[in-house]
Structure formats: C-alpha cells, structure tokens
Specification:
Elements (H helix, E strand, L loop, with lengths): L3 E6 L4 H12 L4 E7 L4 H11 L3 E4 L1 H10 L6 E4 L4 H5 L6 E4 L7 H9 L3 E4 L3 H16 L3 E2 L4 H10 L7 E8 L17 H4 L9 H9 L1 H13 L7 E5 L5 E7 L4 E5 L5 H9 L13 H4 L13 H12 L3 H17 L5 H14 L8 H22 L1
Parallel strand pairs: 1-2, 1-5, 2-3, 3-4, 5-6, 6-7, 8-9
Antiparallel strand pairs: 8-10, 10-11
Helix pairs in contact: 5-6, 6-10, 6-14, 9-14, 10-13, 14-15, 14-16, 15-16
Bound molecules: magnesium ion.
The site of magnesium ion has 4 residues, from helix 7.
Length: about 375
C-alpha cells in the first residue's frame, strides 16, 4: 500500500482534529493534501504549518488571512464556499474525510463519490437528506463509503464479510444523551450549559443538543437505512448508557455480532482510513472490570418525541428528511442562542415537518428546495413565537 493522500473537509472541528491525530501516527501511510475550515483560520494556520498540505480552503476572510500568513509556502489557497467540489475530485486525492457539519457537505460529498474516491463521512446531514442519491452515485462510480460515525462504523464492521440476505436487523445503540435520567417535567428549566454536558462523548454543540433530544439517533436511523440499504423495520434503537457497544447486527439464526470499544472517535476514524487493515491505535484498551456492567433500555418515545418524529420521517422518505434536518438545525441554533426553550425545539420541528408537502420522487433540486423552504419556514415560526 502506497501513501494514501487525504483531504479533510472541516479539519478544525472535533472530528477533523481527531483525524489529524490519527494521521500523525502513520506518517508512512498517509499524506494530508488538503485541509479546509470555515472560520477557525488561526487553528487552520497551525495545522498548515504542521502538515504542509498542497491545498487549503477557508471563507473569504480566512483566505485573506492565510494569504498574508502562509502565502509564501507552496500552497493553493481556495474558497470554502466555491472550491470544495473541485478539491475533492483532484487526481491526487485518495480519501476524503467529511468532517464538516451541515448540508453544505452535500455538494463536495457528491463530487467525491462521482470521482470514485474513498469517502469517510462523519457528516450526517448529507446522508440524511440525500442518502439515496449519494449511494446510487457511489455505486455507479465505484466510490467506497466507509462511515466514521461510531454507530455506522460499528454496523459496517459487524456486516463485513456477511451475506446481506442473512441479516435480520441492526441494533443501533444510543447512550441516551444528557437527559436520560432527567424527568421530562424539568426539561424547560435546563440551561444550555446543562444540555451541553454530555456524559459519554465530547462533541460539537449542535450534535450534543441533538443527542439530548435523541434527534441525533433519529438521524442515525435514517443514515443507517441508506448506508446499509435496510428497511426502517430492520433498525431497532437500544439505549445502552455505558456506550461501549457501538451497535450490533442480528442475523437470521438469532446470532448477534457487536462492535465494542472505548468511546473515542479516533477508533472509527482510524478504521475508515486504514480499512480493511487494522493497525495499533495506541489508545487505552476497553477494561470490562472497570465498566462492570452493561445496561439496556427501550427508548422512551413519549419523553423523547423527536425520535418518534424522525422514525416517521424515515418511513415517509422523499424530501421529508431534508425538511427535518433543516428545521432541526434552525431550531437548535435558536435554542443555543437562548431564543427558544428546550422543548420548543421539538414543537417547532414537528410543525414544520407537518406543513411540508412531501415529494417522494426526490431529485437533488427538490431536496435543496425543501431545505431552503424549511429554513425560511422555521425562522418565520420562531420569529412569530417571540
Ligand atoms: Mg453517533
């Protein structure tokens, strides 16, 4: 295996930083050829100095900053809003890690699969809103999608080498988020800070709020459905607060295969990069005697109606997942900015989902239209309520 050339979209976020930590361990296996960020260009500058990529992208302000600070190097400085599709499709790129968040990842994701790359998505939005299109294009262009999200990576590993017709269902585990043991009556008095204090995973703000509502798990159901070509009935959510089992696959004969490890994103990231090889990670091993016991619970759909809503949306498909994603993004943002209460997130998202007229024959154009519509509609609804 020669040196694999990697582009990281969103290198300054938590997944991007972890990806660089993995790459640093294997200088003879990986070369960073591209790093992109939106506006954290101070950190981007440090990453450029350390990894010397040939390409870097940031927003307009970042481009100006980088030209002044790293411009002397042999580096092409690109605009993150315009140039990502071209960057990921370059001949000198083998692996594209999609660590940026939001639906802005959709176009570069599509471009990477059309160029037949190995794509390692940590981003959920693109797969949730346009998963069918991405999977179809990946197949057509012989691109390989190796998920980085811990649950999807676990399912990917559990299904490896198995005949799909032997699979009965997948068991998607969930740690339960910050509110697992908080009574619903207290939800509206919780501060943003309390919601952001996730017991198991340290992640970005948006995804931590989505973990608290279980909307994140809802997105993961939709993601698993497209990634592994499952029916909605083949996906069961299991609350597992210890978060050691990252997901499981149950086969026809009743046997269940699970993937277990400590909660550290470097593991699924490394697996996506080194697949099908397994290499030393240098991470702390799982200590069962420290963990002591495994617990499992059924998700409480009354307490966490966002999960029920996402399941409904997954069944409907078409443009509805796009609406769910956009409405949730706007509503969570409003919550983080203290414009609405925690429970309002669900109320608002549900209303927007109900208002949408679903188009089942969903082209990219219709999906993006639905996305725009939902953003405007949600913003309007939040303003009305204030
Ligand atoms: Mg996850």
């Amino acid at each position: 295996m020669g040196l694999k050339k990697v582009v990281i979209l969103g290198s300054t976020g938590s997944i991007g930083i972890s990806t660089l930590k993995v790459i640093e361990r294997f200088p003879d296996k990986f070369k960073v050829v591209g790093l992109t960020a939106y506006n954290n260009f101070k950190l981007l500058e440090r990453q450029i100095k350390k990894f010397s990529p040939a390409y870097v992208a940031a927003n307009a302000k970042g481009v100006a900053y980088l030209k002044g600070n790293v411009g002397g190097r042999r580096i092409r400085i690109l605009n993150v809003e315009e140039d990502l599709e071209g960057l990921v499709a370059l001949r000198s790129v083998d692996i594209v890690v999609i660590a940026m968040r939001g639906s802005a990842a959709l176009r570069p994701f599509l471009s990477a699969v059309r160029a037949g790359k190995i794509v390692a998505p940590a981003n959920k939005e693109a797969l949730v809103i346009a998963g069918d299109i991405l999977m179809k294009e990946a197949k057509r262009h012989k691109a390989m999608i190796i998920p980085v999200d811990s649950e999807q990576s676990a399912i990917f590993q559990c299904l490896e080498g198995r005949n799909r017709s032997e699979l009965k269902k997948v068991l998607l585990t969930a740690s339960g988020g910050a509110l697992l043991n908080v009574p619903k009556s207290r939800f509206d008095r919780l501060s943003v800070g309390q919601i952001l204090d996730h017991p198991r995973w340290k992640m970005g703000k948006k995804i931590t709020v989505d973990s608290a509502t279980l909307m994140n798990k809802g997105f993961e159901i939709i993601e698993a459905k497209v990634l592994f070509q499952l029916s909605m009935d083949q996906i069961q959510v299991v609350i597992h607060p210890e978060a050691i089992i990252h997901s499981m696959a149950e086969f026809k004969d009743g046997s269940i295969i699970a993937q277990l490890s400590i909660t550290d994103m470097r593991l699924p990231i490394q697996y996506a990069l080194t697949y099908p090889e397994r290499l030393e990670s240098g991470l702390k091993p799982t200590n069962f005697f420290e963990v002591g016991q495994f617990n499992f619970r059924k998700p409480d759909l009354k307490k966490f109606p966002s999960l029920a809503l996402a399941i409904h949306v997954g069944h409907c498909g078409g443009t509805l997942p796009s609406v769910l994603n956009a409405a949730d993004e706007i509503a969570v943002d409003a919550f983080l900015n203290k414009r609405i209460k925690f429970s309002d997130i669900f109320r608002i998202v549900e209303k927007i989902v109900c208002r949408h007229k679903v188009t089942t024959d969903s082209t990219l154009k219709k999906i993006l239209e639905a996305d725009r519509w939902a953003r405007q509609e949600t913003e309007g609804l939040i303003r009305e309520r204030l």
